[in-house]
Design brief:
CATH superfamily of the largest domain: Major capsid protein gp5
CATH topology of the largest domain: Major capsid protein gp5 fold
Shape: globular
Radius of gyration: 26 Å
Largest sheet: 8 strands, mixed
Strand order of the largest sheet: 7-8-16-13-9-12-11-10
CATH class of the largest domain: Alpha Beta
Number of domains: 2
Number of helices: 12
Distance between the termini: 77 Å
Number of strands: 16
Helix content: 25-40%
Structural class: alpha+beta
Strand content: 15-25%
Length: 419
């Protein structure tokens, strides 16, 4: 008798995705083993002849590129598997359900009467035809989750939600006044703290996905999930660039855009760096030493939760380096979805970090949770435009985001320069 199964299509799909992920991870680990074997051969040739065979070097580069590509495949599979079905889990309140239904009616047909009624009732959901309407809360939450998964700096930074255009954060320049006293002894008067203020203005980030009439008329299509999926990559790419190199003018202030000084001359308001001692390169001898110096430039309290941040090309260069005991400094992820490790600290791949050239700072190291702050103004707005690109319907989607360094001690850079 043939056995039957009651597995749902969703369970079957999840199992298939898990099998794909496991296969991709196994292929990734095999490629990394081949990379180590080929790179070991290259290093032996350098020791014997002062230069490797060009064929060996080419082989190492090709395998290294394959390792990078397989890692990206794994990341995409992990992200796809982690996405929940929007609006299918948990319970929502009556008001949230009303808003969701009203928003869907607006997106599908342009009928905003229900949204306008909610606006009059709550004075919070909509902003009129010129500014569009706020998406439902669960859709906004899903967009935030997706951005956290694919936006490199957002995934490791602190995130603060605000309802105003600017977040102002006071801090004590000379530290808080503290001291020891007995239980019943008088408390001595302390010197006044010298306060300063950090300001994090939010700027408008927008995307404009387009839909066909057939898509909007198809009742099976989850429009909340469609909007979230269409804008996630566009928002993440713009955020990723701004959080790293943004000048702070109508965009977040990136951590590489602050003044950079040698760590020996560091002061608050600038980012300290360690120089490699060679323009556009690591030292010819003991290249791992400058990485060790960078790690220990950071205070112990920040090292506990520190991450490396670099792009794919820089990571490929560091993948070839060994320590004094012959162990590779770069280690692959221990499991699908986890991060590669460099000297025991996670590596965050951010493609907007600069490449290795003379005078560049392509490697950052620090506790970004304490060092960098992302400010999200609550509310994602959508304005339906059926006129500008007929026969398509455009959805002008905006959110306000800010960001900047909140603790200049918590982030250090490695500068590829003589000093």
């Amino acid at each position: 008798m043939t056995a039957t199964t009651n597995a749902s299509p969703l369970e079957v799909k999840s199992a298939a995705a898990g099998a794909d992920l496991a296969g991709a991870f196994e292929e990734f680990m095999n490629s990394f083993e081949h990379f180590k074997e080929s790179n070991d051969q290259r290093l032996k040739e350098i020791e014997k002849r002062s230069a490797p065979d060009p064929l060996t070097t080419d082989k190492v580069e090709r395998i290294s590129a394959a390792v990078d590509e397989q890692k990206r495949v794994i990341d995409r599979l992990v992200l796809k598997k982690a996405r929940p079905l929007l609006g299918r889990e948990g319970s929502i309140s009556v008001s949230q359900l009303e808003h969701k239904q009203a928003f869907e009616s607006y997106v599908r047909s342009g009928d905003d009467r229900l949204l306008r009624a909610l606006e009059e009732k709550a004075m919070s959901y909509g902003s009129g035809q010129d500014g569009g309407y706020l998406v439902p809360e669960e859709t906004e939450a899903e967009i935030a989750k997706r951005l956290a998964n694919i936006s490199p700096i957002r995934s490791i930074a602190s995130i603060r939600q605000v309802s105003t255009a600017v977040l102002k954060k006071p801090f004590a320049v000379n530290g808080p006044a503290t001291g020891w006293v007995g239980e019943s002894t008088p408390r001595p008067e302390t010197a006044s703290s010298q306060l300063d203020e950090l300001s994090f203005p939010t700027a408008e980030l927008y995307a404009m996905p387009a839909a066909t009439a057939a898509l909007l008329e198809d009742s099976v299509v989850d429009l909340d999930a469609w909007i979230a999926g269409e804008i996630e990559t566009a928002f993440a790419e713009q955020e990723g660039l701004a959080f790293i190199t943004g000048d702070g003018v109508n965009k977040p202030h990136g951590f590489l855009a602050y003044p950079q000084v040698a760590d020996s001359a560091w002061s608050w308001g600038s980012i300290g760096y360690v120089a490699t001692g060679a323009d556009g390169a690591l030292p010819a001898e003991n290249p791992a030493d400058v990485l060790v110096d960078t790690v220990y430039t950071l205070k112990a309290g920040y090292r506990q939760n520190a991450n490396w941040v670099m792009n794919r090309k820089t990571q490929a260069a560091l993948r070839k380096i060994k320590d004094a005991d012959g162990n590779y400094l770069w280690q692959p992820p221990a499991a699908p979805g986890s991060r590669a490790m460099l000297m025991g600290f996670p590596v965050v791949e951010a493609e907007d970090m600069p490449d290795i050239v003379a005078g560049s700072t392509p490697i950052a190291f620090g506790d970004f949770g304490r060092g960098y702050l992302v400010v999200d103004r609550t509310g994602v707005r959508v304005l339906r435009d059926p006129y500008s690109a007929k026969p398509y319907v455009l959805f002008y989607t905006t959110k306000r985001v800010g960001g900047g360094v909140q603790n200049f001690e918590a982030i250090k850079l490695l500068k590829f320069a003589a000093n």
